[in-house]
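Supplementary Note 2. Why include the ligand at all?

Several targets in our set were suspected to adopt different conformations when bound, so apo predictions alone were not considered sufficient. For every target with a known small-molecule partner we therefore ran a joint prediction. The input for adenosine-5'-triphosphate is given below.
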Amino acid sequence: MSDTALLDVREVEGGYGEYRVLDGLSIRVGEDEVVAVLGPNGHGKTTLLRMISGLLRPARGSIYFHGQPIHARAPAEIAGLGISHIPQGDLVFPQMLVRENILAGAYLRWSERCERMRRILEDFPRLVPRLNVPARVLSGGERRMLALARGLMGGPQLLIVDEPSLGLAPSVRDSVYALLRKCAGDGISMLLVEEKATHLEGLADRVYVVESGRVVLEGAAVEILRDRSQLLRAYMG
Ligand SMILES: Nc1ncnc2c1ncn2[C@@H]1O[C@H](COP(=O)(O)OP(=O)(O)OP(=O)(O)O)[C@@H](O)[C@H]1O
Ligand SMILES: [Mg+2]
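The joint prediction is reproduced in token form.
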């Protein structure tokens, strides 16, 4: 990875009020890189992503995107810089139509939005027959696809996905990962959070393992994913 990272999270601390979740956590994502953050339940992975996308302010530390500090910026500004965050649990608008949910993912002129949606939908054939139903009737897999499609509408440079495989049947999970591979092939950098390393082979370039709000292990994905015993030790402290 080059010296100027696309995303550079430095020694971030903070959490919810007095409750400190992150404790001096640092990670980097390079241009065209796919980075995975792994770690057990409740150790701060989602909190980290919320800090990157501006939903939470770090109490200490800094976050740079393209060398610019973003840790004091508002979420809409950060999204506008090219960071798209697909939250854990998808958080689609249940009463809105699938089409409206997708279109809500970008602030563009109407004609451009429709054109971009048309292009994105080429990769989401399962959503096409569902465009005019409310998002609440979608299956879990369709909802995950919708969240991804909405996230891509902004044309992100950095796509952040919180637990892309969470709660999905194996075949749907494979389709989600195939899509993520395609995004990586299209040159979108990625920061993925997962609890387990199972599906990351062939996608992630580097891996960080987070425990108690700190990085306890980091390295090239091929090495870390090969040595499961090392991963297991990191998980067990
Ligand atoms: N809104 C909140 N208010 C207070 N505490 C919270 C809030 N959200 C999360 N926490 C706490 O912060 C800690 C870290 O949570 P976080 O969601 O970052 O973990 P995680 O690693 O993403 O776990 P999971 O695998 O369950 O998604 C947990 O102890 C959690 O209970
Ligand atoms: Mg989480």
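The helical segments are 45-52, 75-80, 98-103, 110-121, 140-153, 170-185, 221-226, 228-235. The radius of gyration is 17 Å. Comparable summaries for the other entries are listed in the accompanying table.
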